[in-house]
């Protein structure tokens, strides 16, 4: 007699009813999908409707995208059929699910006898790639809980299914792949699901031990000491975190645990995900990530009992793993922890800039804690201080030195600085780039990821030119070869200085060493709310330097400032004002910007793009300082946001010459850029750390 990992058949109807009560919209969505599956075998894929035939051909692929074949062979579509069956008890749904599973078993024999290097190749085509084998096995285990005891899944059907499950498990243990990439986590989550779901099977104990050992190795190999996944890509970090947590949840259900080291690193992964969240509630989209993805920490919130991490929009995904009691308990605790508007980041009643921020945030965070507006569309009901004033203040500054990500700012502003390595195939050529948020909105952004398909857009979104850093001679910091392959030499980044108390950082990269150029950048955040960025490009020979800033502010005015004093010092300065935040006509948010550089520096604004969602483009404006020089170059930037009708002198930047007070920048006697500020009779200077 098996003890059930998730729930017994007699509990299925009860769980279905409680799922409907907790998530009525998701229930209706699943029912619609299930009804469509029952009616025909049309699959939706990236806006296309594809008829797979009356008897599904699991290798049919009219898209030209091999991800399509991989995707349909993971069987995630069984989830909607399972929910429909749990909610209604209608055998039609169980029958359709069995039609798909049995049809697959009959037509996709296991490819035993493959050479290990072929079987374990991570881009191997077809349904028995190890990634699909593990993910399919995981979905089949959920399906078994949904449909066991139904007419369609009983008798010989059940025997056939369980034999195929065993074959999957044996295949995964026969061909262990490299543990260096996150695919290996997905291989093992399928195997662990089998071992723990069927503890009475002769091989289950060995399968469980094998999976646990490999998962421990995966964590040690793939995750850096500070808890950041080695691919340095927030999206794939989140994917890996959820998988690692799900494995820990399954073990806990059987009274087992991973090692203390596994648990320690896992907690660090959750912390990184939380801190890499923008003020608008979405993950900072560095590398192959997207800007419409709030960090889904629900698995971790349930595992660690942290209601403040709850993301209601995705909570239904955890229901069939942890059960209704755990979901309801976390929801109750979240409500208890946030009884008033301020605790959810809702508008408060304070006066002054902070109260204005809270009032403005009412347009970003709805009365139920849901994200609204351009960045938050589809990301509803994020409960907890991740969205709102308190979270950013408490979490800044932060440092993940092994990874190279750093955060500066306060409750009103947030800057995430990228001093990370390339990170592998999912990395972008973005060393020393940054994202800047103010008053709940992203003002200067990473472009995100438009597509994985090899084409000019893929190359653009991974390029140095698409990021908030300095481009040299129009070339990438690391040579681009194709969609998920970089050339050599690979740019490396060295941290020069980090001082959390003073909120300052300095780093440099050698991506242009082959051109004889080294780029060093320093950033300071001042108590006055202003930011200072100094860039130095050290090198010889003539080069073109482009200091590029990608902004969601759509209107920019440019005024060349300074005069004879600046000409004598060999420097130039420009004062800029950005306004009209794209997609947010309800918020009067602007940015004051000063750009300094050598006398020959020019400044312009051009069109740019970001991809908030796959295959969608949103407009940006790119503020660019341009310099051609045969003896190196430098740029200095001062920036500060302006909210509403606040007094220009208190929130803006005074761009008058240094003799009268205000900001200036020039080279010192040793040829190093220095930014100076004269304010209230006090002179402050900022230099690149050496």
From TrEMBL:
Residues 337-347 have a biased composition (Basic and acidic residues). GO terms for cellular component: periplasmic space. GO terms for molecular function: lyase activity. Residues 337-358 are annotated as: Disordered. It is found in: Periplasm. Its main location: periplasm. SUPFAM superfamilies: Chondroitin AC/alginate lyase. It comes from the Bacteria. Residues 398-624 form the Heparinase II/III-like C-terminal domain. Residues 43-293 form the Heparin-sulfate lyase N-terminal domain. Keywords: Lyase, Periplasm, Signal. PANTHER family: HEPARIN-SULFATE LYASE. This is Uncharacterized protein. It comes from Paenibacillus agaridevorans.
């Amino acid at each position: 007699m098996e003890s059930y990992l998730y729930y017994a058949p007699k509990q299925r109807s009860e769980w279905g009813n409680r799922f409907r009560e907790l998530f009525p919209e998701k229930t209706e969505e699943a029912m619609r999908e299930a009804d469509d599956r029952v009616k025909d075998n049309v699959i939706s894929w990236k806006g296309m409707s594809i008829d797979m035939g009356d008897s599904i051909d699991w290798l049919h692929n009219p898209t030209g995208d091999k991800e399509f074949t991989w995707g349909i062979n993971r069987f995630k579509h069984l989830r909607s059929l399972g929910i429909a069956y749990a909610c209604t008890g209608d055998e039609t749904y169980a029958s359709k699910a069995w039609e798909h599973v049995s049809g697959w078993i009959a037509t996709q024999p296991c490819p035993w006898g493959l050479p290990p290097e072929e079987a374990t190749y991570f881009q191997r085509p077809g349904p028995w790639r190890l990634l699909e084998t593990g993910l399919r096995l995981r979905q089949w285990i959920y399906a078994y809980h949904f449909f066991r005891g139904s007419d369609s899944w009983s008798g010989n059907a059940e025997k056939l299914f369980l034999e195929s499950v065993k074959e999957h498990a044996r295949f995964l243990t026969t061909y262990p792949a490299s543990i260096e990439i996150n695919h290996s986590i997905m291989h093992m989550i399928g195997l662990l699901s089998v071992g723990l779901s069927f503890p009475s099977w002769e091989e289950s104990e060995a399968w469980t031990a094998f999976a646990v050992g490999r998962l421990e190795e995966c964590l040690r190999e793939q995750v850096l000491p500070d808890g950041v996944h080695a691919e340095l890509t927030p999206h794939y970090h989140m994917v890996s975190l959820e998988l690692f947590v799900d494995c820990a949840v399954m073990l806990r259900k059987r009274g087992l645990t991973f090692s203390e080291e596994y648990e320690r690193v896992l907690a660090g992964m959750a912390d990184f995900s939380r801190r890499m969240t923008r003020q608008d509630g979405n993950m900072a989209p560095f590398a192959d990530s997207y800007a419409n993805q709030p960090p889904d920490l629900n698995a971790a919130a349930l595992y660690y009992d942290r209601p403040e991490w709850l993301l209601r929009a995705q909570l239904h995904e955890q229901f069939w793993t942890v059960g209704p009691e755990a979901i309801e308990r976390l929801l109750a605790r979240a409500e208890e922890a946030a009884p008033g508007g301020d605790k959810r980041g809702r508008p408060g009643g304070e006066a002054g800039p902070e109260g204005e921020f809270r009032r403005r945030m009412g347009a970003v965070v709805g009365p139920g804690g849901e994200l609204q507006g351009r960045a938050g569309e589809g990301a509803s009901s994020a409960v907890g201080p991740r969205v709102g004033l308190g979270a950013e203040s408490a979490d800044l500054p932060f440092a993940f030195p092994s990874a190279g990500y750093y955060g500066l700012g306060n409750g009103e502003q947030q800057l995430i600085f990228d001093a990370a390595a390339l990170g592998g195939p999912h990395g972008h050529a973005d060393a020393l780039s940054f994202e800047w948020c103010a008053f709940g909105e992203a003002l200067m952004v990473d472009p995100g990821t438009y597509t994985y398909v090899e084409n000019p857009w893929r190359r653009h979104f991974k390029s140095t030119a698409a990021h908030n850093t300095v481009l040299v001679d129009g070339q990438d910091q690391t040579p681009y070869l194709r969609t998920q392959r970089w050339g050599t030499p690979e740019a490396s980044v060295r941290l020069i200085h980090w001082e959390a108390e003073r909120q300052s950082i300095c780093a440099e990269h050698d991506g242009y060493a082959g051109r004889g150029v080294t780029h060093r950048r320093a950033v300071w955040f001042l108590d006055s709310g202003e930011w200072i960025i100094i860039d130095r490009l050290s090198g010889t020979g003539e080069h073109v330097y482009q200091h590029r800033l990608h902004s969601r502010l759509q209107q920019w005015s440019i005024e060349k400032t300074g005069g004879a004093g600046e000409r004598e010092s060999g420097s130039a300065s420009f004062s800029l004002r950005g306004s009209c935040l794209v997609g947010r006509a309800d918020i009067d948010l602007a940015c004051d910007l000063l750009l300094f550089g050598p006398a020959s520096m020019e400044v312009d604004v051009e069109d740019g793009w970001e991809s908030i969602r796959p295959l969608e483009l949103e407009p940006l404006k790119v503020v660019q300082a341009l310099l051609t020089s045969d003896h190196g170059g430098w740029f200095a930037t001062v920036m500060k946001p302006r909210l509403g009708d606040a007094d220009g002198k208190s929130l803006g930047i005074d761009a008058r010459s240094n003799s009268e007070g205000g900001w200036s920048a020039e080279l010192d006697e040793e040829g190093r850029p220095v930014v100076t500020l004269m304010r209230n009779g006090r002179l402050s200077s900022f230099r690149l750390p050496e």
